[in-house]
Amino acid sequence: MITFSVTSTFPQMRVESVLRDTFPEFSRAKWRAQVDKGSVLVNGKKVRAGHILKLHDFIEAEEPREFFPGNQRISTSEIKLDVIFEDQYLICVKKPRGMHTVLQREGDPVTLADLVVAYDKDCLFSSPNPLDGGLVQRLDYFTSGVCIAAKSREIWTSLHDLLVDKKVRKTYIARVSDTITKGDIEISEIFESPQIINTIEGQHSDVRVALRDGSRHIVRREFRKLGFPLIGDRDYGSEDSSSQNKGASDYLLHAEEIEFRHPKSRQEMKLVCEL
Asked: Hey, what domains does the chain have and what are their CATH numbers?
């Protein structure tokens, strides 16, 4: 437990900012989380984040606890990582639908990063942020499919640079309205070789698209731009959802393939993850 009194050095500052400036080894966000969960007292009372401190206020604060993905969060029986490809440099794995890629808060359910680090502990510190568990890219909660994790910082950096430079080609399968036509998707400026691979009249069409753009939610945003948001994707324009949790998105999007040049062997890689 940390205890100290506010001096004139910190006039009219928020409690989380004072804690960050006094103990900079922890970020402002971590101190704010401590305030939110009641682990910080001002003059013996719990306060809300944003509380303005006054001169001589007495602070009692529990230090934020560092947490990392891996074995400490899951039991051995939960380690069920679907490995598509592995060598001494990287691991290609399948992310299940309905799972977060990385850890956001200590109490979160098991994430893909947990499974990766439990499978190979070298992945933990290969990424600049240990919470990423060595994963080079992230997929949304409802998105399934192929993800790559690096076993060293050198490989992580090389793969990340390939993504930034748009030298990684990714193929997705998305479920949209059955009224879509090939002409509707051929006008996209970012989709390559679009195909309608399956249509169930009155229900949906499954569309396969490839792209090299790794921007956040890029596939979902592009389908909305084309006028065919993913079925169930309320965040990007769909009113139809099979989710029982009303108000939440629940869509089908699958990262089927990823193509890139291996940073060490220089071999052209094409890794496939079946839906």
From this structure: 2-61 (3.10.290.10), 68-165 (3.30.2350.10), 168-260+267-275 (3.30.2350.10)
Extract the runs of DSSP E, i.e. beta strands, from 96-203: 143-150, 169-176, 192-200
pLDDT in tens, 198-221: 999 999 999 999 999 989 999 999
CA distance 146 to 90: 13
What are the φ/ψ torsions at residue 160 (nearest 5 degrees)? -60, -40
Q: List, for residues 224-235, the tens digit of each pLDDT value.
A: 999 999 999 988
CA 257 to chain CA centroid, Å, is 18
How many Cα atoms sit within 13 Å of 155 on the Cβ side?
Answer: 23
Residues 6+ apart with CB under 8 A from 150: 89, 90, 123, 126, 127, 134, 136, 156, 159
Task: Please write the tens of the pLDDT for every residue from 123-132.
Answer: 988 998 888 9
